[in-house]
Here is the input.
Amino acid sequence: MAKRKMAAEKKPQKHFKSPVIASRQDKGIREMAPLAPFIVSGGKNTERYYFQHISSLFAQYPFEVRPRFFGKESKYTEEFPLRIKEILREDADAKIFCVFDWDTIRGNDENLKRHNVFVKQIKSYIDNGQIILCPSMPSFEYWFLLHFKNMTRLITTCEEASKLLNPYMKSYFSQKNINLFDILKSEKYLKKSDWVENLCSDGKLDAAIERAEDNINAAVAADDLKNQSYSYVYKAFKER
Here is the structure.
């Protein structure tokens, strides 16, 4: 992994808290505190601990990660509007990345309808770049797979993505008799940051960002995105 950036090297953020955080009494100058982007996700544990560890390991990628912003994957169209409202009530200028799996939507007309209603509710925020949707097909585990190999073939389930990940990530955990799918869903195995540090080592995070963006751009240009796997999670790193 490229050496971690020291805290002093933090990248300036574009968004700032609306309330006054501090003032220089000697000069009467009011300062605004930088506001890290928020993550809301349908995944309860994998995504939560991943972004929490990213924030601690990489000073240039801070995120606001709060347990209550991570819920049930199948209920994200109900949960996200509540979480978004809560965040924007706290700070109207907050930037929000919505991370969710697409396998629960693909081929399910009812879920797709609910998704479209949700998108319509927040369209103005999407249009101005304040809310960015980051779906992965089939699941967040595919984003991990891109750290190791550039695979675009269609993977349809989280379980399949986890099996493909197994040769690369299973060694990051000491639980030998538990499959990787269960490890990545269990809070108790994800609390330490070692697995994310290993996942991102040797430039693998940068490779995943580049692969995800390039693959999506090529597929969109060819009108073929629906026939392959993809992850928009790269936007959480590039569109801050």
